[in-house]
Amino acid sequence: MILDATQILALAPDPASAKAGGQLATPAKWSGLGRSEGALWGECQGSGKNPYRTQIDLGGSAFKCSCPSRKFPCKHGIALYLLLAGQPSLFATADTPEWVGDWLRSRQAREEKKAEKESQRSAPANPGTQAAAEAQARKREEKREDKVSRGLSELRTWLDDLAREGLASGRARGQGAWDAVAARLIDAQAGTLSRRLRRAGSLYYQGADEDRDGRLAREMASIYLLATAWQRLDQLPVALQYDVRSAIGWSIPVEDVLQSAPVSDQWQVLAQTTTDEDKLKARSTWLRGVSTGRWAQLLQYSVGTQGFEHVHTPGTAFNGELCFYPGAYPLRAAIRNQAAPAPMVPVFDRLDTLDAALDACSQALAVQPFLDRYPLVLRDAVLDAGDRRRVHCPAGGAAIALHPSFRHWLHIAAISGGHPTTLIGEWDGHAFMPLSVWHAGRLYNIESDLAA
């Protein structure tokens, strides 16, 4: 499938790359353009003597370029794809050049090696070797659990002191005090909880948020509940134990997740958002199955200017199998296999109302109380022109608060013209953060299509 210009620009790692790619998407800057059934290539003249060789695996939306950029895809990859979408006649069907063929073969070899490793993992192991490996792994696990227990015990003491002194005392301590506690959690190998505590401390300095104190109190209560749950981990259901460990900082190898039973469906890519903290970028992509109606969250991470390994473009859909990470209410998933993506034909039904969405969220929280966000689709949503902090849902006759950090009210108003529209986003139990908009037959992902 060939993506359109909007979808291609959504692949860019940042707005600057998207803009530069658009400027390079002119025939005068390219030579040696060609394509085969599954690949695309061309050479772009830069400031050096030799042109940059750029190539794209159309089947997997994978990019490679000889330029020195560490961004993925780079501006040359974006430009080459935009050229194909806008002027396909420039690309004659030809035999794959050696430099493109070598790359495609290396990609295939890596896939085969990966499949071989997965096969070896599932093959019976030597009983003695396996027992020794399991014993060493358990010893490492017990050592980490001891460190986490000590770290969370210190955290509970610190939170008790904060409660006695009052939340207002946290401001006087300054962000440095919060960062120090967060650093001790890093030492205790509770990295996920550490980042959450640091973000909580930053709420003190978000002056535009009228509900800042309430949000901080709720977040502190949630963190305290999590620390308490760790102390009583053995008393919790096994599925919920996975959620507690994940919220603290444990991760499960994706190879292990892919061994679980898959869920087959046509998966629609409905929303995507990227956060950047301490040079670590995290990309969250929300999918929903057409037949099952099941939500799935894909999480990817990258460091510095490094791009994300896989590209999932909002507004597309693919047939495939997902395997879900264990938990009391599984949302995070990994892709076992997928067909080539295609433009999605959205499936929004009568259940995509505020009442139905909140009811589904309450059922999820009943089994997984540590769930900090839940995906919602709101049909016929109307922005409140008199109060930009709220969105109305006439189908349910109610309104909900928009998240205080939401900054794209005017963008949505311009798209919808004040008429009812469909919003897709995340609900944190108190406020709704729109991530994408479906209107007049098109999906607008707010981060990639509007924020730039």
Tell me what you see in this structure.
By secondary structure, the chain is of the alpha+beta class. The chain has four domains: 5-119, no CATH class; 138-248; 260-337, OB fold (Dihydrolipoamide Acetyltransferase, E2P), CATH 2.40.50; 354-450. It has 14 helices and 17 strands. The protein has helices at residues 5-9, 15-24, 75-86, 98-122, 127-165, 168-173, 175-187, 191-202, 212-231, 238-248, 254-257, 354-367, 409-416, 446-450, and strands at 30-35, 39-44, 52-57, 62-65, 92-93, 263-277, 280-289, 295-303, 316-324, 333-338, 342-343, 374-383, 390-393, 398-401, 421-427, 432-439, 442-445. The strands form three sheets. Strands 6, 7, 8, 9, 10 and 11 form a six-stranded antiparallel beta sheet that branches. β15 (421-427) and β16 form a beta hairpin. The chain is globular. 31% of the residues are buried.
